[in-house]
Write a structure and sequence with these properties.
Bound molecules: guanosine-5'-triphosphate, magnesium ion
CATH class of the largest domain: Alpha Beta
Low-confidence stretches: 41-48, 50-150
Helix content: 25-40%
Strand content: 5-15%
Largest sheet: 8 strands, mixed
Radius of gyration: 23 Å
Distance between the termini: 14 Å
Amino acid sequence: MSFFGKLKERLFRSSSKLDEGLDAIISDGGEEEPVTPEPSAPEPEPIPQPAPEPAPEPEPVPEPEPLPEPGPEPLPEPEPEPTPIPQPEPAAPPAPPPVEIPQPPVEIPPAPMPELPPQPAESPVSPPLEMPFVRDPVEPQRPPETGKGPGLLGRLLGRGEAKTVTRRVLDDDMLESLEELLITADMGVDTALRVTANMAEGRFGKKLSAQEIKRLLADEITRIMEPVAKPLPIYPKTPQVVLVVGVNGSGKTTTIGKLASQFRAAGKKVVIAAGDTFRAAAVEQLQVWGDRAGVPVMTAPEGSDPASLAFDAMTRAEAEGADLLMIDTAGRLQNRADLMEELAKIVRVIRKKDPTAPHNTLLVLDATTGQNALNQVAVFQKLADVSGLVMTKLDGTAKGGVLVALADKFGLPIHAIGVGEQIDDLAPFDPEDFAAALTGLDA
Ligand SMILES: Nc1nc2c(ncn2[C@@H]2O[C@H](COP(=O)(O)OP(=O)(O)OP(=O)(O)O)[C@@H](O)[C@H]2O)c(=O)[nH]1
Ligand SMILES: [Mg+2]
């Protein structure tokens, strides 16, 4: 089954609030009309996107890390601008003009770089490397935007023969219902308001069918998500150190297992460090994943110092010529100070080996936590230089809308999404597929 099919099936296994909600909004107050003589359907004109509001919000600029240590952790940002990974271009959909969203400067402002040698200019020149997140090169072509009721989509759905379609005038009432619906779908108030305003732009007073409103919403979501859909960048520097952080149970260990398996399948040599030495079970769990992925897992006794394990793992990864070192960490957010110290120490220690490490700090978020994911990003941005996100458990939750809020608010790259507990249940993030699955739009 295609990934889209899988995502759609799973995302809506539990419930499709948005899909049903949109249908309900249209049928509530809408009127049936004959299909063919198209009344005042929205013109097929390119969807006028309102000029992106200047600077939507002040960027959550990561603070200059006032780490407690006396030896100030300068956090020299390696952040070589990732090689533009060949993200399959959104197959030139006719509808949404490529509105340039002011891409929030995700880069951490170059922390005052003390004595560390300037980064050799080698990093940014990495050729596009093969990624584990290889998508099927054949993109499902989006059906042309016809603006007509069921149109092609309807025909694809076997509804082509329908004689009537229900349309509702887009007015204040309907906009309010839309806003409420998007908020209940975990999109957050700010994002929900912005999205509905954009949808209404140029269409106020016009009549829309459920399918048309879903298409508009899906386009709007795609537009927000496109700039953040970026696979994990691969750098020429090896071992590339990937530090994986996140709260308890968010899916860090599972994600490391899945990623390791994909990287290995892509021909990369991977070493995993079981940096969550807090629980013996965590180490065992990672070993199971390492076995499944066919990747060595470096462990240390329960309660031992994760930083020294990270150092040993770095030594081994270098000695063995590994391409990637993935470091699992504990997620005890309830004791923030400890966690901060632990993460800072891991970073400090691996920088003794490679001042540019870690090259990626992945924050793993659990989609079922809904809006709480926003707080987690804010907190972890303070604890670590989060470079990208992985959203797990998108299967079986109706809270996937939080990804839209995350993209809108933080602009951090979304590298992958988890859609199950199996080793291959990690997929690249595809904005169009995601938007279609979330809104119940049929591809
Ligand atoms: N359905 C589903 N379950 C997932 C996904 N990713 C992880 N899980 C499950 O979530 C649970 C927690 O995953 P872990 O990988 O142990 O999470 P963790 O962040 O390492 O947890 P701690 O080590 O306790 O901090 C496990 O039961 C996983 O199988 C996903 O994408 N979908
Ligand atoms: Mg774990």
